[in-house]
UniProtKB/TrEMBL annotation:
The lineage of its organism: Bacteria, Bacillati, Actinomycetota, Actinomycetes, Pseudonocardiales. PROSITE patterns: TRYPSIN_DOM, TRYPSIN_HIS, TRYPSIN_SER. This is Serine protease. It holds the Pfam family Trypsin. GO terms for molecular function: peptidase activity. GO terms for biological process: proteolysis. Keywords: Disulfide bond, Hydrolase, Protease, Serine protease, Signal. InterPro entries: Peptidase_S1_PA, Peptidase_S1_PA_chymotrypsin, Peptidase_S1A, Trypsin_dom, TRYPSIN_HIS, TRYPSIN_SER. The keyword Chloroplast does not apply. Residues 1-30 form the signal peptide. Residues 41-259 form the Peptidase S1 domain.
Amino acid sequence: MTWKNAMRRITLVAVTAAAVLGATAGQTLAAPPPSDVQPQVVGGVRAAQGEFPWMVRLSMGCGGAMYTERLVLTAAHCVGRTGRDTSITATMGVVDLQDPNRTTVRSDYVYRSPGYPNGDDWALVRLSRAVDVPTLAVANTTAYDNGMFTVAGWGAAVEGGGQQRYLRKAQVPFISDSQCREAYGQLIPAEEICAGNWDDGGVDTCQGDSGGPMFRRDNAGEWVQVGIVSWGYGCARPENPGVYAQTSYFAPAIAAAAADLT
C-alpha cells in the first residue's frame, strides 16, 4: 500500500518537491506502509489559474483544500500528532508554485483525527492567520458519492516521478466498494471511497497528492468535496484504483473539530 504523500497521484512536470517547495518528506503512519503505495495525479492536464481556487499545497509534500478561511483539510497521514505546529507552510491562490503572486502562510496548530491510524485518514491544519481564498464545501450526504469525480494536485505525473510545479487535474470514475475490495481486501467501506479506470488504469492521483480533494458538482452546480486522497497500489495501475477518505462519513467529526479550532 502506498500513501499519496511524497509519491502518489496527479503527475505533473518532473520537478522534485524539494526544488519547487523546499519541502521535507511527507510523514507516514507509525508503521510505514509497503513501498509500492503512492499518491499523485496521473493522466491529467494542467489546471487553469483560478479554476480550483481552494487548492492548497503543504510544505511536507501533501495537498489540501481550504475548509474555512483559516483551516486546511488534508490527510491524517500527512501530519504529526494533534497539537501546536508551526512547521508547515501552506501555499495557495496559484497553479504555479513559483508564481510571485502566491500566498504563503505558516501553520500554528494541527488536529489529527483521533481514530487514525485505524482508518480516519483526515486532519485539519490551522493557519496562523485567515486568508482571503474561496473554500470547498464538504459533502455531508452520500448522494454525491458516485458518478465522475475530479482530482487535482501537484503530485507526480507518473509512478515514481517527481512532484510538480504546476497544478494538474484529471477525472476519475467511481468504483463500487465491492469491486474495490477485489483489489484491496483491507478497504473500510464505510470510511473509504474508490475511484479510477478499473480496466485500463492510466488516470489516478499519485505521490505528492495525499490530502488533496476529490470533488464533483452538486445538484446546484457547486463544487463539493467527496474524498481526501489517501492511498493505493502504485499510480494509475489497472484494477488498482485510488482510495480516498469518504467525507460524507467524516463530515460531522470534521465540522466538530473545526468548531473547536475557531
